[in-house]
TrEMBL record:
Catalyzes the first step in the biosynthesis of NAD from nicotinic acid, the ATP-dependent synthesis of beta-nicotinate D-ribonucleotide from nicotinate and 5-phospho-D-ribose 1-phosphate. The lineage of its organism: Bacteria, Pseudomonadati, Planctomycetota, Phycisphaerae, Phycisphaerales. Belongs to the NAPRTase family. Pathway: Cofactor biosynthesis; NAD(+) biosynthesis; nicotinate D-ribonucleotide from nicotinate: step 1/1. Its EC number is 6.3.4.21. The keyword Protease does not apply. The keyword Phosphoprotein applies. The gene is pncB. It comes from Phycisphaera mikurensis (strain NBRC 102666 / KCTC 22515 / FYK2301M01). This is Nicotinate phosphoribosyltransferase. Residues 6-136 form the Nicotinate phosphoribosyltransferase N-terminal domain. Pfam families: NAPRTase, NAPRTase_C, NAPRTase_N. InterPro entries: Aldolase_TIM, N/Namide_PRibTrfase, NAPRTase_C, NAPRTase_N, Nic_PRibTrfase-Fam, Nic_PRibTrfase_pncB, Nicotinate_pribotase-like_C. It catalyses: 5-phospho-alpha-D-ribose 1-diphosphate + nicotinate + ATP + H2O = nicotinate beta-D-ribonucleotide + ADP + phosphate + diphosphate. Transiently phosphorylated on a His residue during the reaction cycle. Phosphorylation strongly increases the affinity for substrates and increases the rate of nicotinate D-ribonucleotide production. Dephosphorylation regenerates the low-affinity form of the enzyme, leading to product release.
């Protein structure tokens, strides 16, 4: 389904009507979108979702059909929830917000905003749900793919998830994010067309089973698909299958084609891949690849590689596209400042939580990333508020544990990461192909210390606020209590 202005939770429209009735629709506000914990027990995430967000914003409008639909929604007493004059206002509404965002593929960490929306309160509110929907899932799957990519080293990774993805939208969105995060190709042909992702495929058990024997099936494949010579060998007996694939490889070679390889889809992939490799090499097919699939994820891939598996290509489906071990990223969207209509001053806001650590950060935040001494890597992120002006110090304080603080040396380079994406409702972020975001993700991963990229119990990348933001949050917490 293509995104529409109705892609929101009803309560957002309820609040929007309230702001409109109170004359507060255009009151300037700032919201931050961030998560509190990196997914999969990892140390980082790969920001993704800006592309779909910009597509949504470009076409954002309530059609007559949309407002007719809203007019029919009843409130608690059966009468319409929305007033006709409010619906007429929605019909004429054109976005005027400013959006600053991490470009897709940027490495990101807990508490640092991935998006900052600034503009009329009503518009910021209406967009909340769709922004979270896009950023949470895209960032989640891009991060999973980045972990799979890391585990697979320089090997090829194919995404095979379509059949077990969460519906059509989930599958397309997952293929997009998986490619951004680092897989090399997808089996999903529609995603290939929609996003310009390379598509690849081997063959299924049904092909082999539809013939009397595996030998016949492979010979027929060699004859009918000579330029796609990968053979699924585990329908009956994986190693006999490898021998049959070698026979088919000779048939291919005889006709001027080559044996692409074999695919293993069950059994002990470490042992079988080594034995398949030995047989392929001994038969004179050193260039033939060993493809493996079967419920793979980053942990199994890492484990198999550490066992010396001779696998060149990893087919990863279900675990990747469903983000199986963590099906949602808990990204949130919090009001961080609102402009007082009387004084014209910005009033910073916090949402209290049971712990200070979970209390949101006030201000108009920007993310400043400092380099390591050698300059090649990311050292730490400082969250500073534009309400305070440029940061006066390079001190950063962990917002979840203010005892933890550090000061970045004066000679380190830095970059502010939130970039202008929309100004006055108009998209200003340059159009980029998905492959460009994928290249960025690769470069960003290589800028992270390997200890931060570790799959399990990673080193904590330092993210801290300025002393000004910390003090402001403390004052607001005390005032609220
Ligand atoms: N050497 C290995 N080390 C660690 N994990 C492995 C190894 N070999 C295979 N695996 C993984 O172990 C799991 C085995 O799953 P399962 O028991 O369902 O497979 P199978 O019985 O071999 O095949 P199937 O049931 O699909 O016919 C898969 O996730 C697979 O990727
Ligand atoms: O395990 P995943 O990571 O999700 O990878 C995709 C799986 O989908 C296919 O199996 P399926 O049994 O659906 O069909 P097949 O007969 O083609 O193997 C394929 O053989 C993989 O095992
Ligand atoms: O091409 C393949 O091998 C493939 C495609 C989808 C799912 N499993 C395998």
């Amino acid at each position: 389904m293509t995104a529409t202005a109705l892609l929101t939770d009803l309560y957002q429209l309820g609040m929007a009507q309230g702001y409109w009735k109170l004359g507060r629709a255009d009151q300037p506000a700032v919201f931050h979108l961030f998560f509190r914990e990196a997914p999969f027990g990892g140390g980082f995430a790969i920001a993704a979702g800006l592309g779909p967000v910009l597509d949504l914003l470009r076409g954002f409008a309530f059609t007559a059909d949309d407002t007719d639909h809203l007019a029919r929604i009843p409130g608690g007493d059966g009468r319409p929830l929305f007033e006709a004059a409010f619906l007429a206002y929605l019909r004429d509404l054109r976005l005027t917000i400013d959006l600053d965002a991490l470009p897709e593929g940027t490495a990101c960490f807990a508490h640092a905003p991935l998006l900052r929306v600034r503009g009329p309160l009503l518009q910021c509110q209406l967009l909340e749900t769709a922004l979270l929907n896009a950023l949470n899932f895209q960032t989640l799957v891009a991060t999973k793919a980045a972990r799979v990519r890391d585990a697979a080293g320089g090997d090829t990774v194919l995404e095979f998830g379509l059949r077990r993805a969460q519906g059509t939208d989930g599958a397309l969105a997952a293929s997009r994010a998986a490619y951004l995060g680092g897989v090399d190709a997808t089996s999903n042909v529609a995603a290939g067309k929609a996003y310009g992702i390379p598509v690849k495929g081997t063959q299924a058990h049904s092909w082999v089973m539809s013939f009397e024997t595996e030998r016949e099936a492979f010979a027929a494949w060699a004859d009918t698909a000579p330029n796609n010579g990968v053979f699924l060998v585990d329908t009956y007996d994986s190693l006999a299958g490898v021998d049959h694939a070698i026979e088919a490889g000779r048939r291919l070679r005889g006709k001027g084609h080559r044996l692409g390889g074999v695919r293993l889809d069950s059994g002990d992939l470490a042992w079988l891949s080594r034995e398949a490799r030995r047989r392929l090499d001994a038969a004179g097919f050193p260039e033939a690849q060993v493809v493996a699939s079967n419920d793979l994820d980053e942990h199994v891939i890492r484990d198999l590689r550490s066992q010396g598996a001779a696998i060149d290509v990893w087919g990863v489906g279900t675990q990747l596209v469903t983000a199986h071990d963590q099906p949602a990223l808990g990204g949130v969207y919090k009001l961080a400042a609102i402009r007082d209509a009387g004084s014209g001053c910005w009033i910073p806001k916090v949402k209290l939580s049971e712990t200070t650590a979970k209390t949101s950060l006030p201000g108009i935040l920007q993310v400043r990333r400092y380099d390591t001494a050698a300059g090649g890597r990311a050292a730490a992120d400082q969250l500073w508020s534009e309400l305070d002006g440029e940061p006066r110090t390079r001190e950063l304080i962990d917002p979840t544990d203010p005892i933890r603080r550090r000061t970045i040396a004066a000679d380190r380079g830095w970059k502010d990461l939130l970039e202008p994406a929309v100004r006055g409702g108009v998209v200003v972020f340059p159009d980029e192909p998905l492959a460009a975001a994928r290249d960025r993700a690769r470069a960003e991963r290589s800028r992270l210390d390997p200890t931060v990229r570790r799959l399990v119990k990673p080193h904590r990348y330092p993210v801290g606020v300025t002393p000004e933001v910390l003090a402001l949050r403390q004052r607001l917490i005390e005032a609220a209590r």
